[in-house]
Amino acid sequence: MKKLLLSTSLVLFASTGAFADVGHAKMAVGMPGHTAKVDRSIDVTLLENDEGEMLIESEEMTIKQGETIRFNITNKGELEHEFVLDTLENNAEHKIEMAKMDMEHDDPNRIRLDPGATGEVVWTFANAGTFEAACLIPGHYESGMHRAVSVGDQMTQADVEYTSGTIKKIDAKAGKVTIIHGPLVNLDMPAMTMVFRADEAMMAKMAEGQDIEFVADRVKGKLTVTQMK
Ligand SMILES: [Cu+2]
């Protein structure tokens, strides 16, 4: 009888995965970090924009394995939002649970903020891999509230996906550049010609007709060239 019970519990453990919810001590995405050991901070803004999208805005979340990050999170939207760090699989699963019942969790990898509120999540990314920051309030993920969190031992430029393009037009005064570009994988956009924002320093490196390799992302709700080579 004892033997049978033991094997049953083993099967149960295996089926919920190696990163079962045992006090969150062994989540794949990592563990709560110590405030005293923060390596750096990433500012995060949660908001809705005029196009009906909901966004998690921040710099690229490219993190070194073992790094402890303080996420300074501000809800600049008019709705309640949350910020959850987890695997894509766990987020997908919790999203389904949330759709059944909008639960308010109190997990260390998760914070829920009223409009105008700020908060922080201090997190140690113990494992390499691709994770996700998301808002799992029903409908929000689908409206755009998710972004990749890449954790690697030697993560930098090599892991950022560059897109080829040709600069068609530059409007330096307006800070706008029109680029004929290939698919933008991180933004889930097909190849087309589009207007991007670029800051002055970036603009200075650009010329009409120039072939470039670039990375674009949403910055304050606008598509912006963030890297170029
Ligand atoms: Cu939200």
Descriptive report:
- Residues 1-20 form the signal peptide.
- It comes from Sagittula marina.
- One of its GO terms (molecular function) is electron transfer activity.
- By secondary structure, this protein is mostly beta strands.
- The protein has 2 domains: 31-152, Sandwich (Immunoglobulin-like); 163-228, Beta Barrel (OB fold (Dihydrolipoamide Acetyltransferase, E2P)), CATH 2.40.50.
- It is 14% helix and 41% strand.
- It is built from 3 helices and 15 strands.
- It has a 5-stranded mixed β-sheet with strand order 1-8-5-2-3, with no helix packed on it. A 5-stranded mixed β-sheet has the order 4-10-9-6-7, with helices on one face. Strands 13-12-11-14-15 form a 5-stranded antiparallel β-sheet, with no helix packed on it.
- It is globular and about 50 Å long.
- Bound molecules: copper (II) ion.
- Copper (II) ion binds next to loops.
